[in-house]
Known about the structure:
The complex is a heteropentamer of chains A (244), B (183), C (547), D (225) and E (343). Chain C is α/β, with parallel strands linked by helices. Chain C is built from 15 helices and 17 strands. The interface between C and E is large, with 67 and 43 residues.
Amino acid sequence: MSDPQDRLPLDDTPPAPGEVQRQPGAMKVSARTATVLLLFTIVFTALMAFTHDMTKPILDASAQAQKLKLIGEVLPPTLYDNDLLADAVTLPATPALGLDEPSLAYRARKGGEPVALVFEACANNGYSGRIGLVLAVLADGRLRAVRVSQHKETPGLGDYIDPKKDKNKSNPWIEQFSGQGYDLALGGHWKVKKDGGRFDARAGATISARAVTNASGKALIWIAERRAALFALPAGTTLQEKTP
Amino acid sequence: MITALLVMALGAVLLGAALGYAAVKFRVEGDPLVEKIDGILPQTQCGQCGYPGCRPYAQAIANGDADINCCPPGGEDGIRKLADLLGREFKPLSGEHGVEKPKSVAVIDENVCIGCTLCLQACPVDAIVGAAKQMHTVIAPQCTGCELCVAPCPVDCIAMVPIAESMDSWKWKYPVIEIRKAA
Amino acid sequence: MRRLFGFWGGIKPDSHKNESTRLPVAKAPLPSLLTVPLRQNAGASPRIMVKAGDPVLKGQMIAAPEDGLSVALHAPTSGHVRAIEARAIAHPSGLAGICAIIEPDGAERWVELEPLDAARTSPEQLRRRLREAGLVGMGGAAFPSYVKAGGTAIDTLIINGAECEPWITCDDMLMRTRGEDIVGGAIMLRELLGARKLLIGIEDNKPEAIAAMRAAATRADPGLEVVAVPTRYPAGGEKQLIRVLTGLEIPYGKLPSHFGVQCFNVGTAAAVHRAVSRGKPLISRLVTLTGNVAEPRNYEVAIGMPVNELIALAHPQADTDRYLMGGPMMGFALPDLAVPVVKATNCIIAASPTLFPAPTPEMPCIRCGACAQACPAELAPYELYWFARSQNLGKCQEYHLFDCIECGCCAFVCPSRIRLVDYYRYAKSSIRAREKDKLAADHARERYEFRLAREEREKQDKAAKLAAKAAETKAKLARASAGDESAPASESDDKKALIEAAMAKAREQTTPALNTDVHRMTAEQQAQVTVAEARHAAATATAAKDT
Amino acid sequence: MNAYREITHNGLWKQNAVLGQMLGLCSLLAISNTAVNAISLGLATILVMGMASLIVSTLRGLIPYEIRIPVFILIIAALVTVVDMAMNAWLHELYLVLGIFIPLIVVNCIVLARVEAFAAKNPPGAAAFDGVMMGIGFVWVIGLLGAIREFVGQGTLFAGIDMVIPGLSAIQVLPEDYPGFLIAILPPGAFFVLGLMIAGRNWLDARANERARQRLLLAGQSSHA
Amino acid sequence: MLNSPYITKPASVSAVMFKVLAALLPGIAAYVWFFGAGILLQIALASITALAAEAAVLAMRGKPLGLFLKDGSALVTAWLIALTFPSIAPWWLIVLGVLVAIVVAKHLYGGLGQNPFNPAMVAFCVMIVAYPQLMSQWPAAGFTDFAAEFRAIFGADRHLDAIVMATPLDALRTVLRLPETRATVEGVLGSNATFGNIGGRGWEWVALGYLAGGLWLIQQGVISWRVPTAFLATLGLISGAFALVDATQYAGPTFHLFTGGAMLGAFFIATDPVSGATTVRGQIIFAAGIALLTWIIRTFGAYPDGIAFATLLMNICVPLIDMRTQRPVFGRKTGKTPDGRQP
Lengths: 244, 183, 547, 225, 343
């Protein structure tokens, strides 16, 4: 849709090259268009490639930073001094963690001493879809913190499990898990109050809370029971479960 | 980087060649749009739009050189139809080309006419009959009411007379909704 | 018992028929002046045969049928013609039409009547009689009867005595009092059409009429069937009655005769009988005078009687605020009471705010669909309303606007009080006007293009002439320079050849320019001037026909 | 410079890409949940539009008519890719939010429409100016849309400004305990608010037209008198 | 000068609307009996807001106030909103909902007769998306303490724990979603004393009230029997079919028909003439579509009851439905002539 206003009296070149009366042959036109398009392609692909090369190192660095930031939410960097990302072991696909693919567990140490394990888990019974969790379990078996890494819960209803969406900024719902020991879970009290447990859930929106609570409880038990083995494994290896 | 370049270059050559070839092979002659626009215009051939007739104006609209609101005889109704056809927004009739008038026919005052044939030459639809030194007259059913004959007449004997309503041309009016202010 | 069919929709308004049937039919006195509109039939006007000052006899033909659909017109009484001029006539527009103004002399002298024996007269002659007696459909459409009484093979003839509109009783009274005439006319029409069956349909709210007609029918021809149809407006609509009696649905754009059915109003049938066996043309009719009047009754009224003089007979009440011609569903309010009664006038209703309250304000359409439930044409009135209101005329046609019979059922039931029919009338006349404009525009374009082609040709002719002249001069010069005078013959031959060559060249150049138009011309080979003239004449002729 | 004034008027109001021509709605609706997101995407669009218009106008003599669209797209795509990579590198947090919508600028009809309708027919100065003006037209609309949605939805303005300019923080306009009107931030809210904005524009235009007509009528009367 | 017809049937929009209001009364009575008089507060609140908003917008649009206020359409919208919102929702929630319905859903689209969407359902959808938590707090059956309800509606501090209870639909979905509990429909509905055996204690009686009112409306000729029949039959059939396949995971027809807004939807929402289909076949398709979508949303969706969303989705389809279901007009049907002659 071209409006007459689009053609301003600034230009003295003919308006559209197509209107020129020459009628060259099809082959000649194809050759010309192919050449021109080729030239443009080379120039602009080069431009893109150049930018790519320029930004690649920065991109790699920021991907790394991104991961550390997520970990930092459950385990502040001041608590450890090792290269966390390098000190990782692979966990097999574990139903207790809600994962059907192998995942990584990072080991935080301070002065060589085990501090905490950072790992992923997943709650599969959220209101809508899976809820991804990142947990940090301290060496004494207490949960350092848990965060939701990704979810699709109903906005405004179930999404308070993510502290960024939680209206109560000073005391987010998910903070109530911090510092709880795994004995609580073993004792069967790692549940929302409605189910007879210890944890709150907001009225009218218990499904998301229940899913996160149950998943984090199960994950905590599983990891806490294997924490010694996990710290002992050499970096880069996979945890081998003995089949009972 | 080299692979990227090569892939892009190959695509460019193929596409460029194909497009150039297609542009020549499948060139469309003529413009059906002009016909459609011309079909909407009232065919008064009055030239009020600034073009020498309805078809040139249609061509100009199709080319995007002219706006759709330059045809006073077509009126708002015509602009609406053009806007519909071209998917443009309706605009009120542009004032510089004249205003919408009731449909009229030219009438020659036969007592005054000197038979100069100037109006015959001006009439785009040959609706005036007569010969040099003879009295002229307008064939009313043929007259489109374009007013082109009025200006050339040296003795000002042509008047535009609005067509009176007859039983055949009478129309039911658009219902006027009277909502009583019930407050 | 005949099996009856239903039709979709329809309404049951209060019938108000008893008011005007209590008193017997009376003859209205002659007015001081009769105003006879020239055009009282659908189609073309007849040609006027009298001029101001001429004496006329009662039943004398004052206008003869013209080509096309038109019927004759007669003087309703004896007297003389006062004037032929435009007067307000009964039409919703209030516009004037040409009328013959006849001043009665009170003598009521008849013109010489020529009764026919229907059994011994050829169908052709009978049809001519119908035309010359000025017969039109008296149900309201005023379609020339001679057209409907001929042509294709008809299986069933239907005489329409349904009279479904409230208030109107002229057909009812006609059937009660002139059953013989109706039956006689119906049988004539049956013979004329060669119909096998003859049905007379009457709404079952007119038991007296049914009884009278049954009696008349049994006397005349036992094969004739008088059928009582359920009372539901608009059962008297032609299409609806055909549907009820035969089950056939006549679509828009088709005539009942395409389906082997033909339908006449009872009034028309009676008029046919009078016109044939008594030779009397259609110069009077029954008109119901009812509503807000002291003495509602039916009158036999001469065509041309001014409505105001007629109304006075029934003594309208003081609060009467307007008069309706026709029924309350499809009639119209008279813009001027001086208008005359015409052949199609069946009823005059005095309206008062109590009888016909002013409508409450229109509310927006809530698409409740009540109109669709009531529409006998089975349209979607709410959609049509929407499109007509937004002037989307194309969509109106897509939703079959022209199938609408303007019966008013939709507006009757609308809870939002929307005057739906007004929108349809508006849309219909807009579409008609638009189509007319389109024709005119196409015509103008053709003429304009022809003119362009002509100008182009003239230019080339001129160029050719110039070239020829130049050649001539050149030849002359050449001859002069040669100084040779011995061969004048060959010289002139030479010159002629040169001119001819130039002309041929010019023709060659002109022909392609003209090609665009040549296929429309009648004689390609003719000299171009003749062609142009012929074309011009043809164009003028079509234009005249169009308008 | 009358022509430049007209370009400005076209870009900002008369042919405004969003309110006037309803182009680029996909990214507009998706990314306008907060003012910062909206303005950031808008700024990226301005950058791309200005540069694309400049380049196309400069090279317009070289581009054969038959392949103008592929060439335009190529140019726009290259520019967008560059912006995308640069943003990923230097404004990573914001990049995570705007995500898919940066590459989608390529197919944002506004860019191609302006390049085709204007830059291909006008000299580079005017073309670049037009691109930027069209971009500004986009930015003010998307920015306003984002601001309204954010304000109504959560009672703040410029939440997440720290992603662009570290150190700044959001303005809490309404009290902290404002319950929020969540739907404004969700996709349906985008449609509601944009619909209201378009209605507002049409209303203003209608009013201006009416006034112009009144003026014309008055002028006509006085000239007749 | 007026044209024909000069007579009309005595019927009006306001008569239709007030009959609809009257038909809601039995349902409201049951509501008050089981869930307290709070609902009356909400209805009053909604009515006042609706009339005020309607008057304000009409004045702004320069329309005659008296004429349109009397038509009763605003009141119908207000009552439907009050009945679909939780009766213990805070006052501002219902006020906001009514404003959304009247100002946005009704008048921004052109007022009475022009709104493509059912205003009450627009209000419900907007509010449940904006305030899902508040819109999910329903009163417990048998809790009829008016003072507590008054505090819940108008109080600044809402202590709801005592009076809030999940609706049967909510409870059913929530529990069935938990894989580890291995809950069954019967386990959730049957074993719990707080639920009625049919559609949830109390709720089934409210539904019966709506059913009674709806039948009266059909008898009065205000609504067509086709819409509720198509609605209830579709909902019954689809839920019945799935219950036959797996009765432990899918609730049966009695539950679906007598819980949530099914009856209200069948008789009072799907029958809205303005936003619903108008053709006969279209009405059936429209109502069946709402029922089908309702069941899908109830069973698989993210929000408790699906009537509102289903209605809006079908509202979108109305122009298409109406266009595709136009009946052939008089004389244009094929093969309808009795003696086989084709028109």
